[in-house]
Amino acid sequence: MVYLCSMNGLFLLLTALTAMSATAPSDSTKVKEEELQEVIVTAHTAEQRVSSLQLGTEQMQVKELTSRPALFGEADVMRSLQLLPGVKAESDASSNFQVRGGTAAQNSILLDKTPVYSVGHLAGLFSAFNDNALSGATLYKGLVPAQYGGASSAIFDITGRAGRADAWGGNVGIGLLSAKASAEGPIVRDKLSVLLNARRSYADLFLKMFDDYRNNELYFYDTNLKLNWEIDGRNRLQLSGFISKDKTALSDLVSVEWRNMTASLQWMHRMGQRSESRTSFFASSYDMDNSIRLMDTDQAYSGHIRHYGLQHNAQIEAFGQKINLGAQTMLSDVMSAEWQILDDHQKEQRKGWDNSAWADWLWVSPNGRFTLSAGMRLNAFSALGGTYYYDIDEDGNITWLHQRKEYRPVKTWVSLEPRVSFLWKAEPQWSLKAGYSRMTQNIHALRNQDTSTPFDRYTISTNLLRPQHADQVGAGFFWMTEGQDYDVSVEGYYRHVNNVPDYRDGVNFASAIEIERLLLTGEGRSYGVELCVRKNTGCLTGWLSYTLAWSQTRIDGINGGEWYDANNDRRHDINVVLTYRLSSAWTLSATWVFNTGQAFTAPSAKYQLIDNYIYYYAERNGYRAPDYHRLDIGAVWSRKMAGGKLTREWNFGIFNLYNRYNPWLIRFEDSTYGRGTKAKQYSLFGIVPSVSFNLKW
């Protein structure tokens, strides 16, 4: 199909253009969740890793992001996440992450309890989350509390930072790709504060200087706003907003644009010394628009995901018991695709109503050695009328059409999701943990490439497409030295997923507007072991992690109904992360990453039909790309001025120090006259130096 070839070529063209441009203390009765969250994140010690109940939980030290090597000098919470055990990067071109055999599309990313999608700038090179706007972030790798849902792999819960309530401050910075600024302070001292962050690229400003590029566009921006109102000692309101946008346009020939917008209003109420509640109203919108005009051929493609929801959660502690109760209702509007190819206009848009209720119970033994958490989440998802639904035969052909009145349920799926976690701490220095979790996902992604891009198509659970159900069990051993100088963790897991979607053989994401016609569903499984050794004190700190993992899929009608390696199956992963405090001004850092090459599908044979060569594929994902590895180094110089009120900071880095060209894309090309076929590897980055400057007050 002309459109698909054009969009694939467009993605390669825009990514290449991007790479070229890039190289050129408080009252205990008050509601203080924001500050408490920040303390937890920055003080995630060895003792906490040993004593915390939840298995497979990683808390990000957001304040230390700037001390690690960063691509193009942009401190990125998403790329830092990829250095943790059990977490993999999709590719050099993506800040998206994969967890324990799941895909990036099976994760849920929450910003101030609001879902966001495709949160990457420059087609995903780095995330749209400005580090100056973040307070803390927690990753749940499959074993999650009952209050979380909507994903079949992992939950990444990000908390935005509230502005200072005592005095005004700010930050300005500039790097190779963008400049950023922030301001924060009290509107009413100790009562009402505001935080505003903004970041924008500036490459397009230089394009305007050249006549040949004057009509081209290449920019991104993101903004964060947070108002925090301390009403009284028991009540607090927070209003949060986030906007990000990317646009790339080559004159009037090609245009690619995607946008994220979120808004949330949260009321936090303390119901005594040990009980509190949170009520949240939230809305989010993700939109993508792409167009191409070549050789009198006009093509346009767009899609969106929109959510509007209300959530209430209460934590109650009484008689030595802790109970977490809550409920959420959310209306989803998902347009999987709308495209215009010449005179052919097609659109598929669906709406769904997602309702959940949950309860968690926490019990601690009198001697403190045993901790048990048991919970249940009930989810009811309804595909709503107002548009066509259909039945299909085994070949994907439509056999019947259904249409219900708008907002009338077409199909409702009800799921029970039990969650259990157990901790046994026989000695102060070591513990054993185990758990089981079931999760349900009702928003599904159909990817255009092997990795996530802004061109992905999304859809909801329908009368044909069932919710994905993921069951995961895990166990782990945690140990630390007496002084917490070192700690070691070993975790094992097994994860099974039902109703995993994948392409039918011989189709692609643009073969039909009706997305269910492109899909077959089956089951997936992943299992592995994660080892992590950390050094926590002294001038030299960091960790070494190793993951041994398998990820496989089985779908009737694909690969002869046999198990095959998933695209994200990588047998070995090694991460080495080191930080060295050289002096009060200088901090040095280095990271080394290795992982087994990604599985991909290669043609086994080809035959000639008239003047065309047709490839034959005998096995799905039966080949491996070359192994991936790279070394990054960085240095941060920081010094206070003006009596400690002003801080200057220089951040230097080199991405891929030994200039290895790792595989990003592998394509197959016919040799002259079609006599043979060769595989050609495309790499995105060699060595990339960077520098950025920040001024804080």
Rg, nearest Å: 25 Å
Extended strand count: 42
Termini gap: 55 Å
CATH names the topology as Maltoporin, Chain A
Number of domains: 1
Assigned CATH superfamily: TonB-dependent receptor, beta-barrel domain
β-strand percent reads over 45%
Main sheet attributes: strand count, strand direction, barrel closure: 22 strands, antiparallel, barrel
Mean pLDDT level: 84
Oligomer: single chain
Q: Helix share of residues?
A: under 10%
The structural class is: mainly beta
Rough outline: globular
CATH class: Mainly Beta
Query: Please, how many helices?
Result: 5
CATH level-two architecture: Beta Barrel
Low-confidence stretches: 1-43
Describe this structure in words.
The chain is mostly beta strands and 697 residues long. It has a single domain (27-696), classed as Beta Barrel (Maltoporin, Chain A). The protein is built from five helices and 42 strands. The strands form nine sheets. The chain has a 22-stranded antiparallel β-barrel. β4 and β5 form a beta hairpin.
